[in-house]
Amino acid sequence: MSFLRLERIHKSFGKTVAVHEFNLSVEAGEFISLLGPSGCGKTTVLRIIAGFERPTTGTVWLQDNDITDQPPNRRRMGMVFQHYALFPNMNAAGNIGFGLRVTGVRREEIQRRVTELLNLIQMADLGDRYPHQLSGGQQQRVALARALAIQPQVLLLDEPLSALDAQIRLELRAEIRRIQQQLGITTIYVTHDQEEALSLSDRIVVMNQGRIEQIGTPFEIYNRPATPFVARFVGAVNQMRCEVLDPLRGQLRYADQPLMLSAPMPPDIGSTTTVMIRPEALHLGERGGTNRLVGRVSTVVFRGPWVRIHLDFGANNTLVLDTLNTPQLTLPRVGETQVVSFAPESVWLMLNGSK
Amino acid sequence: MTRRPSLWVWLWLVVWAIFSWLPLVASFDFSLRARKGILSWQAYLNVFADPGFYESLWFSFQTAMLTIIVSIFLVVPTAYWVHLRLRRARPVIEFVTLLPFVVPAVVIAFGLIRLYCCPPISFVSSPLLLVAGYVVLSLPYMYRAADNGLRALDVRMLNEAAQSLGANEFQVFFLVILPNLRTGILSGAFLTFAIVMGEYTLSALLAWPAFGPYMQYVGVFKAYESAALAIISFAITWLAMLLMQWFARVSAAERALTAPR
């Protein structure tokens, strides 16, 4: 049986529906990310799990107990907020020990636990600093330790890294994952940053406008997007507007050049359609696959480990190609004609709302 | 601005200074002339020798302390509740707290007498009635102080953080919210203190020996002592304000660094 289960959760605020028919099963110890653009409902779902919002309909199960109506202070779920929410009147140690204090734990035990957690977050000698004396990254660490102090059944994080600098974000991201795996705590992580979700999660729930677009491992989400939205939101994707030549044979035409799919299209697909392909699935030269297009190089962007090339195929058809920066690589020059090849399997057909 | 302020600025500054300070300076000067022909502290000595001075000062002081305590217990939880749950009611509450500015103290006094003169609630002859009146008078200040303090915190977020850690509503209020309102409440308290110490209408109409009526009484017969009392009263108010500013400044830095960005 799953550890945490959301069953047919539906939430509306007046006439606005924030979450439609949300179903999710989470195993113990899993790291789940809720990923989506602002306003997609991911924070609402998190708050429903935490108990700060009541679902309009639906049930929240924790270890087969219905906790839908349970007040938040009885759920034993630690929460980490985007803006830290540290108590300004207490120092780091006081903040971390707060959850233990309000449940009547003995002072020595609190002391022991606080020391243990300060070591875990690598802030052993900063316990008596007040929030205003700590940097953003340190404050968020304290917030994390504070949430962990109560030994939560579920750890909830609401965009915890969004307010931090890029460098600190990367460090803290790794640390959150390390601690989570070390302690084996079931975690729900809300973010709009797909890189965060891809690098941290066991599974990702991609959301859009209150609906689940796809649930899967990072690998699945990236390499086998279930909907055009997922393909566009997670990673970059090229959209190619093509003429349909032969649906049964999977033959298309892009910018007056032939293009093959690896599977037949529905016969009623119409005369034009859109297909998608990832920039890294396109290859320079002839040897990248049986599909072959010729275009003109319009921009070359050197990004260190890899190179991004923009190609123009005429009539406003452009493609973006990413290639690894290997020593043998000769960078194409702007204005040159360039052959691009790719496998038919890496081309995704986009049908109304699904792939 | 590195340019020296223009002459106009200086002119207005001087005009303002004269307008504000001249009456005070004049009163002070007058209070020093109790002995004919020389400047002396005689008026002040007379005041300090009068037992009525200490009695009325002590009475007002006690009343002020009681007012502050009642005010805190009444106003702070209200402000917190409005912030947390009744956001929409905020404009209404704010309007109510501004009423004491609009309604004259005379009307408040008579209203209090009318309301509490007869059973079931009858404590017209108790000094608590005066405290009740003062709580109303200081309502705008105390509420605003608590309100400002609450605005500087993200009350909802702190509440949720505390609740997620297992705290109930009382624990949230007493362990998290209240300690962070300390400076705001202190500011409100000092303002209330200053108001109560100098208040005349309510205490005179309800016939209590407070500092305000005492000053008025002295003023009827003794001109110099009256001026001295005015200066003393002003000094007390100033002291309260200075303390308030000092407390506010000490924690302003703290608050700025922990408020949500």
End-to-end gap of chain B: 28 Å
Helix vs. strand class of chain B:
mainly alpha
The whole-number mean of residue pLDDT values of chain B reads 85
As a whole number of angstroms, the C-alpha radius of gyration of chain B is 22 Å
Percent range of helical residues of chain B: over 70%
CATH class of chain B: Mainly Alpha
List SSEs of chain B in N-to-C order: HHHHHHHHHHHH
Number of DSSP strands of chain A? 20
Structural class of chain A: alpha+beta
Uncertain regions spanning at least 5 consecutive residues of chain A: none
> Assembly type of the shown chains?
heterodimer
Strand portion of chain A: 25-35%
Assign the CATH topology of chain B. MetI-like fold
Question: Which strand order spans the largest sheet of chain A, edge to edge or round the barrel?
Answer: 6-7-8-3-9-10
Which stretches of chain B are poorly predicted, pLDDT < 50 over at least 5 residues? Answer: none
Chain-wise SSE layout:
The complex is a heterodimer of chains A (355) and B (261).
Chain A: E1 4-13, E2 16-26, E3 31-35, H1 42-50, E4 57-62, E5 65-66, E6 77-80, H2 92-102, H3 107-120, H4 136-149, E7 154-158, H5 166-183, E8 186-191, H6 194-200, E9 203-208, E10 211-216, H7 218-223, H8 228-233, E11 238-246, E12 251-254, E13 257-260, E14 272-277, E15 283-284, E16 291-302, E17 306-312, E18 318-324, E19 337-342, E20 348-350
Parallel strand pairs in A: 3-8, 3-9, 6-7, 7-8
Antiparallel strand pairs in A: 1-2, 1-4, 4-5, 9-10, 11-12, 11-14, 12-13, 14-20, 15-19, 16-17, 16-19, 17-18
Helix pairs in contact in A: 2-3, 2-4, 3-4
Chain B: H1 7-31, H2 42-49, H3 51-84, H4 90-102, H5 105-116, H6 127-152, H7 155-164, H8 169-180, H9 182-198, H10 201-205, H11 211-221, H12 223-258
Helix pairs in contact in B: 1-12, 2-12, 3-6, 3-9, 4-6, 5-6, 6-9, 7-8, 9-12, 11-12
